[in-house]
Amino acid sequence: MIDRRLFLASAASAALGLLVAPRAGRAEDIPAAASEFVSQLADRVIRILKDKSLSRDDRVKALAAIFLDGFDVRAIGLFVLGVYGHRVSDSERDTYLDVFKEYVVQTYAVRFNSYAGESFLVSKTAPDGEAGAWVTSGIGKPGEEPTEVQWRVRKEQAGYKIIDVVVEGVSLLVTQRSEFASVLQRNNGNVASLTELMRGKIVELRQKS
Amino acid sequence: MRASSTARKATISAEIGLNVGLVLALFLWLPGCATPPTDPDARAAFEEANDPLEPTNRAIFDVNVALDDHIVKPVAEAYRVVPEDLRKGMHNMIVTVHAPVLFGNYLMQADPDSTADTVLRFLINITAGVGGFFDVASMVGVPTHDTDFGVTLAKWGVGEGFYLMLPGFGPSNPRDAIGLGVDSLMDPIGYFATLLESFGRLVYEGIDKREPLIEPLDEIRRTSVDYYATLRSLYRQRREDQIRSGKGGANFPAPSISGPGDMPSTAPEAARPVEPPTSSANIASVAGQSQAGAELPGAADSAAGLGGNETVPAGPSEQSALANEARDPTGRPDVER
Questions:
Q1: How many beta carbons lie within 10 A of that of residue B271, not counting itself?
Q2: From B176's CA, which of A1, A10, A171, B186 has a CA 20 to 30 Å away?
Q3: Are the beta carbons of B244 and A25 separated by less than 8 Å?
Q4: Residues 6 or more apart from A115 whose CB is under 8 A from it?
Q5: Across the interface, do A75 and B258 touch by the CB < 8 Å criterion?
Q6: pTM of the full predicted structure?
Q7: Are B306 and A24 in contact (CB under 8 A)?
Q8: Can you tell me the ipTM of this complex?
């Protein structure tokens, strides 16, 4: 008797919850959704890394796909051109962006391949502007002090996208921009020469990996 | 005895003085300063790099890299023959005997918590940790800290100056280079050890620092199109983080939105200058607070779970639990993901 009443009560509250749900859902909590986005992305990556049936090439391809899906590589690519970004021609820029995409895949996505059973968990999330969030996570092997990694996530037309990763206070975006600025400065701001340099690096990285 | 060690210290100081003199001589003799470019974009990049001695720095860097390739890195690799537990123990001892320097710096930084932790750590590890070999203090929950006189100067308001590549020591700047010297003067062991012992310790510390960096540095060098510029940026950012005591709040710039249908709400982000003087993270959290204040308590939580539910198919209860855990800055969710 009591059980049935309890059951009815919980069923009623569940139904109520479902009714209320869509309305409450409109006022989206961006930090929470961003944190969920990062967690799911990490889940996808770890699932691929744990999948022993995949060949090495397939694994890299799958990781690259997740990477290009989860990061706003175009925005990042344009940003890291820094002060030289505005003087690049349209065709030069498009070539640069294509090569940059491949370059980051080769440098960052491939880096996941050194996976050794690390776990990933989100520890906190905070708003970043009106349409973004900083999601803080710990990555580490069991029994070890986890490395703090912060993901800068932004809500865009195409959904949530990562725009920067900060590891122990070091921003990948800032580092990449400084590096490119140095290359561009030494090549009279010629973006095509930076593109060429990246092309060479991609060939080199493909051979070694 | 004391007189002789003081004399030795004086010799070391003289050595340091001589080295500084040599470094200065090198600066005068080597390619020297880069002339600031006239092109406005190049000029902006030049100022952002804050590396007026770049030609000289790069020359020193090349020598450092060559030394590293042929001596330091091979020695660090060979050091891995030593069992990990033993290496860890020796590392702990180095850290323990460094405590007086940390103590002095934390005092000067007026940081009572870290000062107390440093004293506590030293006392615990020197006794229960058998002369510092075992890090018992960390096991009982006294956190580790690291600082130096460069950080102290920064907290006193001294700027970094400009980038400086030190022969042998690597990336630095005038502030941190002075810090390096002051730290060595603050170290009581330096006053008791012989010149040979001090040198041995310096060498050991170098290997101890280099060993965990073998793979990361290889990786950076392998992937970067400008190794020198990458390390320059990494050094700066790491120092900034240390000065902020790893508490975050850095003013990282953000890219502007790309693609069609850009969201206007982030336009201020895009319009912001390259290195905003105020912390965007702080502004963000303040903005977030005022936003949250407009909502009913608890409403944000339910919206958190349900908002995520719209985009991803998953159990609603699991969703909101996850979101709540993730939002709690104190309690780390115990889920392995």
A1: 8
A2: A171
A3: no
A4: A46, A49
A5: yes
A6: 0.75
A7: yes
A8: 0.83
